[in-house]
Amino acid sequence: MITQSEQDFMIDCILSDLTTYLMQDYGMTIENALSTIYNSEYYERLNNPDTGFYHESSPYNYHYLQHEIEYGKLV
Questions:
Q1: Is the dihedral of CA 2, 38, 22, 32 positive or negative?
Q2: How far is CA 30 from the centre of its chain?
Q3: What integer pLDDT is reported at residue 1 of this predicted model?
Q4: Which of 23, 30, 56 is nearest to 42 (CA)?
Q5: What φ, ψ does residue 43 adopt, rounded to 5°?
Q6: Could you give the CA distance from residue 12 to residue 14 in angstroms, rounded to a whole number?
Q7: Which of 1, 6, 48, 64 is most exposed, with minimal Cβ within 10 Å?
Q8: Can you spell out the DSSP letters for 28-43?
């Protein structure tokens, strides 16, 4: 079983990657990228251990965030 601190670390790593992706793909500043992530429905799901998103790769997670940005909702 994974500990809370391990889960938090995995989420932090994903958030770092997603921030970089948003900055590269959308030309966002770091502040805008973080705001986009933290204010998304996706972020709520990432932090919900039942979804298992934190177990997936950063590119996998980025797909869900991009979909929400582009279509206004998650897949």
A1: negative
A2: 14
A3: 82
A4: 56
A5: -60, -40
A6: 5
A7: 1
A8: --HHHHHHHHHTSHHH
Query: What residue type is 74 in one-letter code?
Result: L
Are residues 12 and 26 in contact, defined by beta-carbon separation less than 8 angstroms? no
pLDDT in tens, 5-29: 999 999 999 999 999 999 999 999 9
Q: Which amino acid is at 53?
A: F
Q: Which two tokens stand for residue 38?
A: 């933290």
Closest CA to 19 of 38, 47, 45, 44: 38
User: Contact at 8 Å (CB) between 23 and 33?
Assistant: yes
Distances (CA, A) of 32 to 7, 18, 20, 26, 42: 25, 12, 11, 10, 16
Q: Which amino acid is at 45?
A: R
